[in-house]
Specification:
single chain, alpha/beta, four-stranded antiparallel beta sheet
């Protein structure tokens, strides 16, 4: 039974999370302070995932997540009332594995949580999707044992999309995550790299058009059809 650390300064939110999670087979440990959660982990206690609120009085969730990442690989999902891209990217860049915007449904919470736990169970050093193997350690992309030659940026782009299936990434999100900077006028850079990735995967006979899809007016996503 997975153990989930719930960190939020609002007792009603902690109770709601517990109400959603417990019937779905999760054990919950509640903290109303990020510092208390940090101390819990530093004492050598273990858990499978942390649900971490962003807005807290002692230290905000971004600070807590950064400190956690200096000593722990526990998956972290940020809970935030902010739905702006810059805040979401900030959370991911501090080491969060995913984010959920309040208010959220029980179904969304459970689905996101299970998806992050699945990814964490394989450490995401390797992702194997229907015969398409992406390896961070060995820096290769293969389909059915045939290596696909990609540039470093293309490799990072594929890895990001594979790691977060069904999530829509805007061109600005991808520029920030893959290139490491913000740019308002260089969306064509992303389009060019996506086009190259599609061409290379097609040549390797991977059914890329079923998965790497354009979301018109928004960006791109990797569709998990399972």
């Amino acid at each position: 039974m997975p153990t989930i650390l719930l960190v939020d300064d609002e007792s009603r939110m902690l109770d709601l999370l517990e109400l959603y999670l417990t019937p779905n087979g999760f054990t919950c440990i509640k903290f109303d302070s990020g510092i208390e959660a940090l101390n819990y982990l530093e004492e050598g206690n273990e858990a499978d995932l942390m649900l971490l609120d962003v807005m807290m009085p002692d230290k905000d969730g971004w600070e807590i997540c950064q400190e956690i990442r200096s000593s722990s690989k526990i998956p972290v999902i940020m809970l935030t009332a902010r739905n702006q891209t810059v805040d979401i990217i900030k959370g991911l860049n501090t080491g969060a594995d995913d984010y959920i915007v309040k208010p959220f449904s029980e179904g969304e919470l459970i689905a996101r949580l299970r998806a992050v736990l699945r990814r964490a169970s394989t450490e995401r050093e390797e992702i194997n999707y229907k015969g398409l193997l992406w390896s961070r350690e060995n820096h290769f992309l293969k389909y059915e044992n045939q290596e696909i030659q990609v540039t470093p940026k293309e490799f990072k782009l594929v890895g990001l999309l594979l790691q977060y299936p069904n999530r829509v990434f805007s061109r600005e999100d991808l520029l920030t995550s893959v290139w490491g900077y913000d740019a308002e006028t260089e969306g064509r850079t992303i389009d060019s790299h996506v086009r190259n990735v599609r061409d290379k995967l097609r040549k390797a006979n991977f059914p890329v058009d079923d998965h790497l899809q354009t979301v018109w007016g928004l960006g791109y996503k990797w569709v998990d059809s399972n």
